[in-house]
Amino acid sequence: MTTESTAGTAAPRTLAEELRQRDDASLATLLRARPDLLSPVPNDLTQLATRAGTRASVVRALGRLDTFALQAAEALAVAPEPASYEALRALLAGDDGDAAVDGALPGAVATLRAQALVWGGDERLRLVRTARELLAPSPQHPSPTGLGPAVAEATSGMSPGRVQQLIEAAGLTSTHDAVSAVSALTELFTDRTRMSALLDDAPVDALDVLGRLTWGPPYGQVTADPAAHLRWLLDRGLLVPTSPGTVVLPREVALHLRGGRAHRTTHPLPPEVPPAAEHRPRVVDATAAGQALAAVATVEELLKEWHEGGPAVLRAGGLSVRDLKRTAVALDAPEPTAAFWVELAYAAGLLASDGGFEGASSPYGEGDAGPRRAEERYAATPAYDDWLELPAAERWARLAVAWLAATRTPGLVGGRDGKDRVLSALGPHLDRSGAPEVRRRVLDLLAGLPQGAAADPEAVLARLRWERPLRVGATSDPSGDDLRTRLARWTLDEAELLGVTGRGALSATGRALLSDTPHRAREGHRTHDGHTALDGHSALEGHSTREGHTAREGHPAFERTLAALLAPLLPEPLDHVLLQADLTAVAPGPLERPLAETLGVLADVESKGGATVYRFTPGSVRRALDAGRTATDLHTFLQTHSRTPVPQPLSYLIDDVARRHGHLRIGAASAYVRCDDDSVLGEILADKRAAALRLRRLAPTVLAAQADPAALLDGLRSMGFAPSAETPEGDVLIAPAHAHRTPPRTAPAPVPEGPPLPDDTLLGAAVRAIRAGDMASTAPKRPAPTPTSAPGELPRTTSAETLATMQAAVLTGDALWIGYVNAEGTASQRVIAPVRVEGGFVTAYDHTADEVRTYPLHRVTGVAELGED
């Protein structure tokens, strides 16, 4: 196996030298795989190599490897450095070989090379130092392979005499120094034949001890006076003391006992995700469409509950546990499901905090008009009203697109964060940047199955664990699942609730959501918070937008495309209901919006499902009358929209409530009650329940109250009366619908995972800049007439020499090497081709930045001609 980067060229001595041998496409691949290396753009390839070896960057890169690539890196970490490709293959395949390993290893090594975690030719593979430190075994950080230190490392603290005793006990000839003795012992332990002969003479109990340590952990405890079988192992170096009472099994011994394998089990191939159940695609699509319709109805019901002002915002942000429970009861759903619907509405920009300001004026007077500070509450946003006007399919598309891109993670609600604080719905600590990637990957795996096929959730989770194995330090819950696994479980549940899947299989609309989402179209087109500066006074152009604008900006064209696929699967809205004699109405399907809104005011929802049951009560009828409807309007409405005759009990109920409605009038005195029937007022005064209202009679038909009108209305209604509010002019006050909205709000922007992915324009500009900077730092320089600075430092020349050299270069067209200090005091080396020198400035083509720039001459520290290469 030979790579293009190493074939036909001198063997690189450092990672920077190997990067210089790569072509531009290979460098772009590296920067695309590890975008953190671009912030900011490195000055040259040496700086790029240095940054690629930093701990934070290497940890991030290792976390992106699949299981087999990570196992290959772990094997290199315990192999002698440098290691050959064949030695690496032997560590992964073992002495008996493994065809699967042979087939997968070239790809794994290519991945490690492409991400600059491994460099060198096939005969001299080297793992970058930081990765070796992270993966190599030590008492503080045991190796994932379960191997201990090598013989040379384990015996480094031994005296030379003790080392000589070890090789003599092992049947080797004594040497003149400890280094050669350790080498002889290492050769013995790595020789399969001689090592087998040595172990043939071992006591049975000694072999049992070795068996317990073979696959790790390699450390064990011994007493000050070890047993004979332990003494036999210690005398021959098969166990080496590391501290008083602690011994370790050397790496070479463990590898012999393992048959040459670094891992007990290698996983060269990803686990399959086979179909667990198969359904007809039409059944899956119909089921998903039903769930989609229910999802839209649930979000609408949630926000209808909060349209006049929802629960209060906690001081630390979020929804209280009590309010979440109330919401769950109102939606007839478990609390985790209620948290999902609340978070989905928030992610879609339909729900937000009102900021604690109310702008509605008081209907009872002018003194309270204008914005005022109030308790901060959750409420629907103005975007909700626009959303309601859309067809059901488009409303679902808006929710689905927002869900796929959101970093909000409702599954965390009710858990605790790192500071042992309870995580609340709509709270500030629910963003998990990896959530969109996990959702997409789960749906991609379902999309890989035949249409109508559902997968076993455990098979999906096993595949995800192989693609991103759990690393040390990853967060997990009490069940042992890491966050990525929990995100995958939640994705499967949420996709079913939302109608992206049906019966566990991806629906046609779910496939469309994946195949051409704005996220896919914009993948690799996200923006930095500001430009990527090259030298403090310039920036790379061609930046792009940050992932996460999917939900915030909206994508009407794509949402309409999704809606067009879903719409034929949804039932047509109905314009009628079925009235029944028990004061209920049955809606056999979804209703047209005007009908649903009016019926929602006139009756209470009793049950939901395929058919919705509404119940008429005195309170619901009074609510319709309060909204400005008359008894005649209600009778006409029911006769128009009922496919069955209007039952007599329902007509009597409407007439009875209407007869008493508005008989009492409530206004502002501070508050008063007036009624043409003074006997009714007398009845109110005699009722003990009215004591809290502190009523007194001003006139035969008027009572005054020391309570505000709203409290007076509620109090009399609780006593069984049906009062209505009136304006200062004496007219009936009709309460407006949808009285409370937040100020305009944008949907929350998803929190990006790590640095943004660079697009092709940014990658091309970055590679050119790095190449130019590397040429400036490595090109041979022709000595200047006066003594120059030491290698690696900025060139130093006098102002006259700098000016003369610049002017000469303008005439000859030669390129120059200059030192430059910008306005922030940052020094850099540049290769320029001067075009014009005048007015104290030089205009030149800057090879480092690949553009024409103007430099003040007083900031140029010196200049030197480029030597011929």
TrEMBL record:
Residues 577-699 form the Helicase XPB/Ssl2 N-terminal domain. Residues 517-552 have a biased composition (Basic and acidic residues). Keywords: ATP-binding, Helicase, Hydrolase, Nucleotide-binding. GO terms for molecular function: helicase activity. The keyword Nucleotide-binding applies. Residues 745-758 have a biased composition (Pro residues). The keyword rRNA processing does not apply. Residues 801-863 form the WYL domain. InterPro entries: WYL_dom, XPB/Ssl2_N. Residues 136-155, 259-278, 516-552, 739-761, 774-796 are annotated as: Disordered. Pfam families: Helicase_C_3, WYL. This is Helicase-associated domain-containing protein.
